Amino acid sequence: MTRDLRICFVGDSLVAGVGDPDGLGWAGRLAARSFADGLPSTRYNLGVRRETSADILGRWEEECARRLRDGTDLRVVFCFGVNDATHEDDRPRVAPEESAANLAAMLGRAAGRGWNTLVVSPPPVADAAHSARTALLDGRFALVCRAAGVPYVSVHRALSGNAVWLHEVTAGDGAHPGADGYREFAALVAPHWDSWLGTSGGGTDAR
Fold first, then answer.
1. Distance from C-alpha of 188 to C-alpha of 162, rounded to nearest angstrom
2. Is 90 left (phi over 0), alpha (psi -120 to 50) or beta?
3. Predicted TM-score (pTM) of this structure
4. pLDDT tens per residue across span 31-41
């Protein structure tokens, strides 16, 4: 049977690739990488600006179900948390324990539907205090994924020391990079992406 690969990228504006003049973000670059490796896919970007894990929890399954009802290889990539950690009224928009519970609920529902999942950590932003809160989520999300047996890609620490990412986020709106920053993000995820999809990764460097 021919492999009909369909992938939903679920999350916030960083999944949508906001700020990238190339219109690809990291998700688009990873999909292009797989095409170059001889593995075409139908890709759906379901990133929505300002959404928290609580917002995503309320919509993701129905949106994915519409897109993943056909095909032979059905997958979901989750990436969120920056908006959860945004402070409003001197508190995070979503408490860390609730963020972790939301992720666990999504992974449970995806497993029940037979959808293969991959989770990518929230990246750092320009504000140090905000980034410290997303680092806390990174640790919690890693534990959730370990318990669920789901592959988890932490980009937070590497991007925190990445000059290109930090320059572009700081020069931009404080949260979103340009094309070069998204290339750095995609390059960190790429080897995990290849393993998850079962590809060699020899076609392109995700740039």
1. 11
2. left
3. 0.96
4. 999 999 999 99
Tens digit of pLDDT for each residue in 144-179? 999 999 999 999 999 999 999 999 999 999 999 999
- Name the amino acid, one letter, at 56: I
The two beta strands, 152-153 and 116-120, are: parallel
Do 52 and 103 touch, CB atoms closer than 8 A?
Answer: no
- Which two tokens mark 18? 């906001």
CA torsion 100-91-132-96 (nearest 10°) is -10
3-state DSSP assignment of residue 114: coil
**At residue 90, what is the residue type?**
D
User: Among residues 186, 166, 140, which one has the least CA distance to residue 29?
Assistant: 186
Q: What CA–CA distance (Å, rounded) separates 113 from 61?
A: 10
